[in-house]
Amino acid sequence: MIKVIHYLNESTEKPLEVSISEYYDEVLKLLPGLPKTVKIYFSDYGIIAASGVGGYAYSHDIITISIDPDFQDKKKQLKDIRSTIFHEAFHQYQNYTGESGPFTAIENAIYEGMATVFEREHCGIWQPYGDYREVSEDSLKQWLINLKELSLKEFQDTYRQWKFYHPELKERWIVYKVGAWIIDQVLEKQKLTILDLSTKTAADVFKLYEK
Ligand SMILES: [Zn+2]
């Protein structure tokens, strides 16, 4: 179930409540430890142009969700709202939220990678931020080295570049792409599913990767 605690564009958001509530209940079945009711705060933060949707796991029981009222393809947008709810709820389940940080660059990559693979496996969507298929393995390896070298402070000062757009490397979503690439390798090598990783910390998962 959901409880809306803030509207931004009520005429767009209110009609979507029933669907959002259904989507959350679907995740709840997969991850029963989540709160029975999640609070939804509608905002305009972090909308992705390709889907007209943005999401943020604000705290253990609040999801911020942003919906572009002018996005034309409403069917695609609804699909992406569903996968965004899956993604953010996975973060909450793993206690990777705005209230629980800060997290290092590598922890960010691992947690974002897990949530991105979860939405891909359970909603069937390769989100542009997690789609590393067009990226060379050399680049992914180099970015992983870059992320490992960042101190927590350096990452906090520059996280927007690594998470969203790096102006010198001219690349988007480095953290997500490296993360999804690592998670796929862990799942394949260890013969695990993404649900098997749901109860593990980023440090545990990174150890599995380095094994
Ligand atoms: Zn995320």
Features:
binds zinc ion; 9 helices; 211 residues; 53% helix; alpha/beta
What would your notes on this structure say?
This protein has 211 residues and is an alpha/beta fold. The chain has two domains: 2-93, no CATH class; 105-210, no CATH class. It contains nine helices and six strands; from the N terminus they run βααβββααααββααα. It has helices at residues 10-13, 17-30, 74-93, 105-123, 137-149, 152-163, 174-190, 194-197, 202-210, and strands spanning 2-6, 38-43, 53-59, 62-67, 165-166, 171-172. The strands form two sheets. A four-stranded mixed beta sheet has the order 1-2-4-3, with helices on one face. Strands 5-6 form a two-stranded antiparallel ribbon. Strand 5 (165-166) and strand 6 form a beta hairpin. The model has no long low-confidence stretch (mean pLDDT 97). The protein binds zinc ion (ZN). Residues 87, 91, 112, 115 line the site of zinc ion (ZN). Zinc ion is lined by residues 87, 91, 112, 115.
